[in-house]
UniProtKB/TrEMBL annotation:
Keyword field contains Metal-binding: no
UniProt keyword annotations, A-Z: Membrane, Transmembrane, Transmembrane helix
Transmembrane segments: 7-25, 45-64, 181-200, 206-227
Organism: Fodinicola feengrottensis
InterPro entries per UniProt: DUF4239
The name this protein goes by in its record: DUF4239 domain-containing protein
Length: 254
């Protein structure tokens, strides 16, 4: 809810600044300094708009791809843990308790410890990393004695390997953000996109003011959404640990 009000405030503020700029320019800047050829100005502004749209697309891709990868990896890792727990019932009896305990403990640690770390520091939890390694070691130390146990062991090995890949993807995506140079470029381009409209020499009418407010507000909204989605596990559009919580329910965790 706070983010919603913040977003509304950003949009309203940007819209207000756009209108104030329009009113000041139209009142104090001499007409001879404003664009006289509306057709030429319109064609130029179309080019500016196209370049700005390309920049927005680049920014959206830069933040959305890591976000998508992290979401898919989260679901994959949780699914692998469920399968490991289910398949472990076919492993040698001596190995089952440790694998069951470590699977549950690791999943609980991801929810309780690692997710806050991903949110606050964009880094993994050392506790969760250690528990995952213990789980992997416990699985690798299993000694199957029958064909059925060997088949289950091979399947569990494949699942823990897939979980490790998914975990690496999830962790590596946590600190992927907008390329540093792109934010200044986007902000400057946004100012140019709004400021160029002032050069059209529009009359100080209510519809023209609404147009300026709409352009400024929409640009601010786009930048605000990109900012909120920049880090996969932080800010308003962060990925939640729901797949791991569901996994805990299925494997018998708290």
């Amino acid at each position: 809810m706070i983010v919603l009000f913040t977003g509304i405030g950003v949009v309203v503020l940007a819209a207000g600044i756009s209108v104030v700029g329009f009113l000041l320019i139209s009142k104090y800047v001499p007409e001879r300094w404003l664009v006289a050829d509306a057709d030429a100005a319109g064609a130029l502004y179309a080019s500016i708009g196209m370049v700005y749209a390309i920049l927005i697309a680049i920014a959206a891709i830069a933040v959305w791809e890591p976000h998508t990868d992290a979401r898919e990896a989260t679901s994959q890792e949780a699914a692998d843990l469920i399968e490991i727990q289910q398949l472990s019932s076919q492993l040698p009896a001596a190995s089952r308790p440790a694998i069951h305990r470590l699977t549950v403990t690791y999943t609980e640690s991801v929810v309780a410890s690692e997710w806050p770390a991903l949110h606050d520091t964009h880094a993994q939890s050392p506790e969760s990393a250690a528990l995952f390694q213990q789980l992997r070691t416990a699985i690798e130390q299993v000694n199957p004695s029958s064909n059925q146990e060997q088949s289950a062991y091979d399947a569990v090995l494949g699942r823990i390997s897939d979980a490790a890949d998914a975990r690496r993807t999830r962790i590596s995506a946590a600190d992927k953000s907008m390329p540093p140079l792109l934010w200044p470029v986007l902000i400057i381009s946004s100012l140019v996109s709004v400021g160029f409209l002032y050069l059209f020499g529009l009359d100080r009418t209510f519809p023209n003011g609404i147009m300026m407010a709409t352009v400024g507000g929409m640009i601010a909204l786009v930048l605000f959404v990109i900012f909120q989605i920049e880090y996969p596990f932080s800010r308003a559009l962060a990925i939640d640990p729901a797949p791991f919580i569901l996994a805990l329910q299925q494997i018998g965790g708290s």
